Amino acid sequence: MPRAQCPRCTRPSERCLCALIPSLPSSTRVLILQHPSEVKHALNTARLAVLGLSNAELLVGEVFEALPVLLQQPGYRACLLFPGEKAQPVMQFAAQLSELPLLLVVPDGTWRKARKLLHLNPALAALPWVVPPEGLQSRYRLRKAPMVGALSTIEAIVEALNEVEAPTRFDALLAPFESLIGGQIEAMGEQVYQRNHGQPDALPGATDG
After folding, report:
1. Cβ atoms 79, 157 nearer than 8 A
2. Cα dist. 25→47, 155, 173, 174 in Å?
3. CA separation, residue 194 to residues 79, 81, 177, 178, 197 (Å)
4. Of 47, 165, 28, 24, which is closest to residue 103 (Cα–Cα)?
5. Domain DTW spans what residues (predicted)?
6. Do β-strands 129-131 and 29-34 pair in parallel, antiparallel, or remain unpaired?
C-alpha cells in the first residue's frame, strides 16, 4: 500500500516540509520551466521555490506553446537564468536602462534536458542570459556538478533574488531544501554518504533539481 503523501509539497506525510516553506513576496516574477523528468524526482527544488514565493509560477513540459505570451507579461523585463558565455551578472542586467522588475525565467532539469528545453523553445535562448554572483558554494551534496560554483535551481533563484532585491533576503526559501538534503543523507546512512558523496557537490546553476 502506498504511503500517504502531502498534496502540497508531495513528500510522504511523515516527512512533510510545509511547516518550513515560507511565503515570500518579491517584485521579481519567477517563471520555472521544468522538464517532465524532474517532476517526480525526490529532490524537486523547483517546486519548493514556487511554493515559497508568492510571485512565481511552475510550468511542466518540453515545448511551451504559450511562451511568447508569457515572456511579454506587462510590467516586467524577461531574462534567462542560465550559465553560458553570453550570460551577465543578474544585477548588471537589472540595473540597465529600465526600472521595470525582472521576469526571471528558469529552466529546470539536468544539463542535457535544460539545453533541450532551450533548443525546443528558441524564444528562451533569445532572451538576455543572466547568472548569480560568482564564488558561491552549493549546499547540494547529493549530485555531481560539472563545474565549480554550480547551484541547484532553488539556490540559483535565491541568490539572484538576494542580489536584485537587496537588502531584502530570500534565504528562508532554503530551509525546506536543507531539511530535504539532511533527510536524504540520514536515510542513506553516514557511511554510504561518505563513500558516494564525501566531497561537497553541486548542481548546474538553475538547471538541475
Report:
1. no
2. 16, 17, 11, 15
3. 38, 32, 20, 18, 5
4. 28
5. 2-189
6. unpaired
Q: How far apart are CA 116 and CA 107, in angstroms?
A: 10
Domains and CATH numbers, the chain: 24-197 (3.40.1280)
Q: Are 88 and 160 in contact (CB under 8 A)?
A: no
pTM beyond 0.85: the answer is: no
Helix, strand and coil percent figures for the chain, each rounded to 5 = 35, 15, 45
State the chain's maximal CA–CA distance in angstroms. Answer: 57
C-alpha 9/C-alpha 162 separation (Å) is 24
Strands, E assignment, the chain = 29-34, 56-60, 77-81, 88-89, 102-108, 129-131
Q: Residue 150, Cβ neighbours under 10 Å: how many? A: 24
Using CA atoms, how far apart are residues 143 and 152, in angstroms rounded to an integer?
10
Q: Please report the pLDDT score of residue 180 as a whole number.
A: 83
The model's confidence at residue 58, banded by pLDDT at 50, 70 and 90, is very high
100 secondary structure, DSSP code: P
Rounded mean pLDDT, 2-28: 89
Q: Which three cell numbers stand for residue 10?
A: 508531495
